[in-house]
Amino acid sequence: MSEEKRDALHPEELSLRIQEIGLKWPVSWDMDYDGITCRVHVQDRTHNIRVDKYTREDPDGRYFHPLHELAHCKLSEEIDPCFSALQCGHEADSDECRRLYLIYVPIDVWVNQERHKHWPEAMRNEQVAVCKEMVQIAKQNSYMFFQPELLLTLALSMAEDFLFDTMVGEQLRRIKNYLPPALHGSVAEIRKAIVDMGQITPCVESLQYYMREFARILSFEELIQVRLEYSARHQCQVVYWKE
How many CA atoms lie within 13 A of 231 on its CB side? Predict the structure, then answer.
C-alpha cells in the first residue's frame, strides 16, 4: 500500500501511527527538546519521545523522524529497553560521548527494518533526501567523508539499499565515485557489518557484539570492551566502557 508523506507530528496522525505499529504502552511527546530521541519507562510501561525545533520545522523531518522513534519504541517493548536509547555510564567528555553514540548508530538498521514493515515509503523518501545531501557534500569536498559520522551514514544507506531496495543505488554510486580511494575499504567493511546485522534477529547480545565491532573498525580502541546494562534511574540502556 502506498504511503503518503504526511505530517506524522499532527495529533491525529500520531494516534494512527501508534496503532499501526502496534505499541502496547502509552506514548507521551516532549516537543521542546534539544535533539530527537526517545526513552522507555519500564516501571511505568510508557514511552516518551522528544522532538527538537529542527524536526518540528522541517516537513521531511516531521515525516521521517517520528516514525523512526516509534520503531525504537516498538523494539524496546518487544526486545529490550536498550533499543530505546543509550546513555554514557561514566563521567565522559564530549568526545567520548560522541564516539559511543557513533558505535550505537548502526542499531538503526534494525529500527528502520521495523519501520519499513509498516511504512516502506518512509524509508525510500528518507534515503532520497539523505543521498541528495551526501551527493552535494561529496561533490564539494569528498574528504569530509573521513569524518566517522558521514562514513557511517553512507555505509548505512548502502546497506539499507541492499536490504530494503530503497532505490537510491544510482545516487550511492555517484557518491562512491567521489570518495578518496583510501575510504573504499572502510566503507565496504562497515556496509558488510551492517548488512550482516540486518540479516539476523535483533537482541542485546548482538547489539553489544556489533558495537564492539564498530569500535574496532573505527579504531576506537578504548571502546572495544563496551558492555550494556539497563538503568532504571536513567530509564534507558547505559553503556560502560571502563572498569
Answer: 17
Handedness of CA 185, 190, 195, 196 (dihedral sign): positive
- The span from the CA of 59 to the CA of 129, in Å, is 12
pLDDT at 8: 62
Q: Write down how long the chain is.
A: 243
Write the CB contacts of 132 (distance below 8 Å, at least 6 apart in sequence): 171
Q: What is the 3-state secondary structure (H, E, C) of 77-130?
A: HHCCHHHCCEEECCCCCHHHHHHHHHHHHHHHHHHHHHHHHHCHHHHHHHHHHH
Average of per-residue pLDDT across 76-92: 79
Q: Is 27 helix (H, G, I), strand (E, B) or coil?
A: strand
Q: Is 38 helix (H, G, I), strand (E, B) or coil?
A: strand
Whether pTM exceeds 0.85: yes
Q: Distances from the Cα of 69 to the Cαs of 72, 96, 146, in angstroms?
A: 5, 24, 28
Q: Which three cell numbers stand for residue 212?
A: 564492539
